[in-house]
Amino acid sequence: MSEQTHIEEPSKATIAAGKKRQSLGVLASLSSATFLGLAPVFGRMAILAGFSPLAVVALRTSLAVALMFSILFIFRRQFLYVFPVGLAGCFLAGAINGFGSILYYLALGQLPASLGQLLYALYPLFVAVFSVLDKQPVSRLTLIRVGVAAVAVFLLTSADGVNAPLPAVLMMIGAAALYALHIPINQRVLYEIPAPTVTLYTLLAMSLVTVPFYLLFDHQLPSAGLSWWPIISLTLVTFASRLTLFLGIKNIGGLQAAILGLAEIFITLIISHYFLGEILTLPQIIGAGILGISITMIALDKHDPTKRHPKGGWLAWIHPPEINPWSLQD
């Protein structure tokens, strides 16, 4: 008599919860893209106003972490707790992103905001590579979407006739790679840690990299007559973009959040056109349309990247303690 294997079908409640989680993740990722799209515009405006690139990156990260800590300390102190390995993961991701931010704003000092953001949009390609190396499941449709996005980014970047300095271009691509590298690290951490906690400690690590770098290598103090509103605006969008980014990663996975994050290009191109006078060419419009197709294809992807993947991968050392302290109530 042969044994029959019974496969339990997911309940309606499980399916509904999954859809709700995906909707929240998509909304959070698109919100993050909106804030990230504003960041290069405010950053470029701050640099043009007289702030040095290193001053911009140091001020925006340190002010953002101070804001995040104040909010959690006053309203949600339980989110200040993090287990040691999780803290190490946040600090590793934040340090990597901190060095990436330094490259980003150094490049932004020499590139238009629109062109810089278009080059930076290569980061989902790097996220796909790092996710595969970490043995995270990547669906076929996701790979197709990455390919479509790559075509769009090629059109967007090759259409600009500005003779951009090669060192600045390489720095921006390096910044994209480092930004991509911190996403799968944070995805591991977010399995067990709330997004606000990850945001706080990642921003703290970024500040521990960017502020000393500014103090050591940049002796330009902001003059008394400079307008600080671009820095304040950049701080607010940095804070909001990191919080919503990690909320998106927690609910739909790092690669999906990264591809949705490409919507930031639209924000940067539109805002930089009106506030900085930068021009959008016809090929760039075509590339933006193709990018929109890649973004909307997420509705067809039924894969759940938030499920734990098999043991192994280069980030396997990031795991929670055997007793989960988040299950303990005060």
What does this structure look like?
This protein has twelve helices and no strands. The protein is an all-alpha fold and 330 residues long. The longest helix is centred in the N-terminal third of the chain and has 38 residues, at 12-49. Helix content is 70%, strand content 0%. It is globular. The chain has one domain (41-306). It has helices at 12-49, 53-75, 84-108, 113-120, 123-133, 140-158, 166-189, 195-217, 229-252, 254-260, 264-276, 282-296.
Task: Indicate the mean pLDDT.
Answer: 79
| Secondary structure category | mainly alpha
How many structural domains in the coordinates?
Answer: 1
Q: Using only CA atoms, what is the Rg? A: 20 Å
Please provide the ordered H/E string of secondary-structure elements: HHHHHHHHHHHH
The rough form would be described as globular
For the largest beta-sheet, the strand count, sense and barrel status come to: none
Indicate the multimeric state.
single chain
Number of helices: 12
Give the distance, in angstroms, between the N- and C-terminal Cα atoms: 53 Å
Estimate the strand proportion: under 5%
Q: Helix fraction?
A: 55-70%
Q: Could you list some keywords that capture this structure?
A:
single chain, 330 residues, mainly alpha, 12 helices, 70% helix, globular, disordered N terminus, disordered C terminus
